[in-house]
Amino acid sequence: MSARPERVLVTGAAGFIGSTLVDRLLGEGREVVGVDSFDLFYPEADKLRNLRGALGSPAFRLERADIRDAERMDAVFAAHRFDGVVHLAALAGVRPSLERPIAYADVNVVGTSVILQGAVRHGGPRVVYASSSSVYGERGAGPNEPFRETDNVDHPISPYAATKKACELVAHSFHHAHGLPVVGARIFTAYGPRQRPDLAIRKFADRMRRGEAIPIYGDGSAVRDFTFVEDLVTGLVTALDRDLGYAVINFGAGRTTSVLEVVQQLERALGVPAKIDWQPRQTGDVTKTWADTTRARELLGYSPTTRVAEGIERFVAWLKEIG
């Protein structure tokens, strides 16, 4: 297999991270097949806007398909003979998973199994799949230390987190049984242009622009390791281009920012004050995420550079551009 996969499957290709990744791969001269089911979690028009540039490229093909459809996905693998796969498609979000746990298990765990099966049956391409910082649960609520890949992650506190932990176990089993090269990317709170409407920074910005109050759960002191999407995509592509055998790797910024600090940055970037609607802390929410990026740096040379203030300014510029 070449050092750099040249024909890549991206699942969840029309999403926030997926479309940014597709653009990066196309810009590097690779062929990309994007799979997306256009789930109604947010408007299809937003997703098609994400892919506007890619759809004009002869090196890109879009397949509307559900990753749980084993027959359809097998046909996609057979037709294209991928040498790389980045599997991002999933039902996302902690709070919705509390209401739809069966759907989350079905899409996330069964869908991941289908993708890994397709990879094994059709040449064993390198696979990078999206895990999540949510697998750490409340591990970081006490000790003032970042989350390390060696930490125990046996106690997820939401169905979404449990499905991501399950996907890591499934991926390990495929590597052990079939030698499939597979990397789990534990993604920490991605943000930036094309961000989904339900995610905090986008939701806050939209409401602030309309003069509406923004909901903050708890006292606003919860902190997150906010990772700018372009930095994340750089990490994902680098992981795809290295044969690491089996690995689980944190992809975060390596620093924390509180929810209230994010609101202050949005006030500066948007030029409007925030009205806050204080709400009780929500079941399934953790008080802190914080990535130890040592492994990513040592294995991949991963070095995120975008500070939250800069990232929010770039996000706001995109938001104003789309109206």
Task: Give an overview in words.
This protein has a single domain (7-189, 227-254, 290-305), classed as NAD(P)-binding Rossmann-like Domain (Rossmann fold), CATH 3.40.50.720. The chain is an alpha/beta fold and 323 residues long. Helix 1 packs across helix 9 (229-240). It has twelve helices and 13 strands.
- Counting helices, strands and paired strands, the structural category is alpha/beta
Q: Terminal Cα separation, in Å?
A: 44 Å
Assess the beta-strand content as a share of residues.
Answer: 15-25%
Largest sheet: 7 strands, parallel
Low-confidence stretches: none
Using brief descriptors, characterize the structure shown.
323 residues; alpha/beta; Rossmann fold; two-stranded parallel ribbon; 18% strand
Question: How is the secondary structure organized here?
Answer:
Blueprint: E1 7-11, H1 16-27, E2 31-36, H2 44-50, H3 52-55, E3 60-64, H4 70-80, E4 84-87, H5 94-99, H6 101-121, E5 126-132, H7 159-178, E6 182-187, E7 190-191, H8 200-209, E8 213-217, E9 223-224, E10 227-228, H9 229-240, E11 246-251, E12 257-258, H10 259-270, E13 275-279, H11 294-300, H12 308-322
Parallel strand pairs: 1-2, 1-4, 2-3, 4-5, 5-6, 6-11, 7-10, 8-13
Antiparallel strand pairs: 9-12
Helix pairs in contact: 1-9, 4-6, 6-7, 8-10, 10-12
Concise summary:
By secondary structure, the protein is α/β, with parallel strands linked by helices. It has helices at 16-27, 44-50, 52-55, 70-80, 94-99, 101-121, 159-178, 200-209, 229-240, 259-270, 294-300, 308-322; strands at 7-11, 31-36, 60-64, 84-87, 126-132, 182-187, 190-191, 213-217, 223-224, 227-228, 246-251, 257-258, 275-279. It has one domain (7-189, 227-254, 290-305): NAD(P)-binding Rossmann-like Domain (Rossmann fold, 3-Layer(aba) Sandwich).
